[in-house]
């Protein structure tokens, strides 16, 4: 059976297999965990911890990702993210040719494609071209 593991300080989205969610040991308070053990605070500065959340947010039983805020046990997502926990990035124009949306308007392209939306075929070397032209 195949098992994948994340590098220290990273985890996957629920049900996902890409290690794209940073883990912070301390509470990010009114900010969000932007890289392992570092918070981006509401003021914009980066620090191991941020100021506290409001009373309504402290009483939430769920945690929102990517800077989303919890109100009445529901996440209100920042621009560029959707989902129950704000864990799903949005690529407004989509990703083409099998590319996957990995961040707000950021696509990860499959081999052979490039461009902001994976819309262009990448230049292949002579050996790859020969392999693709070989009749099977």
From TrEMBL:
<keyword id="KW-0732">Signal</keyword>
<keyword id="KW-0964">Secreted</keyword>
<keyword id="KW-1015">Disulfide bond</keyword>
<dbReference type="InterPro" id="IPR049388">
    <property type="entry name" value="FBN_EGF_N"/>
</dbReference>
<feature type="domain" description="EGF-like">
    <location>
        <begin position="87"/>
        <end position="119"/>
    </location>
</feature>
<dbReference type="InterPro" id="IPR051145">
    <property type="entry name" value="GAS-SHBG-PROS"/>
</dbReference>
<keyword id="KW-0245">EGF-like domain</keyword>
<dbReference type="Pfam" id="PF18193">
    <property type="entry name" value="Fibrillin_U_N"/>
</dbReference>
<feature type="disulfide bond">
    <location>
        <begin position="91"/>
        <end position="101"/>
    </location>
</feature>
<protein>
    <submittedName>
        <fullName>Fibrillin 2</fullName>
    </submittedName>
</protein>
<keyword id="KW-0325">Glycoprotein</keyword>
<feature type="disulfide bond">
    <location>
        <begin position="109"/>
        <end position="118"/>
    </location>
</feature>
<dbReference type="Pfam" id="PF21364">
    <property type="entry name" value="EGF_FBN_1st"/>
</dbReference>
<dbReference type="GO" id="GO:0005576">
    <property type="term" value="C:extracellular region"/>
</dbReference>
<dbReference type="InterPro" id="IPR000742">
    <property type="entry name" value="EGF"/>
</dbReference>
<dbReference type="InterPro" id="IPR040872">
    <property type="entry name" value="Fibrillin_U_N"/>
</dbReference>
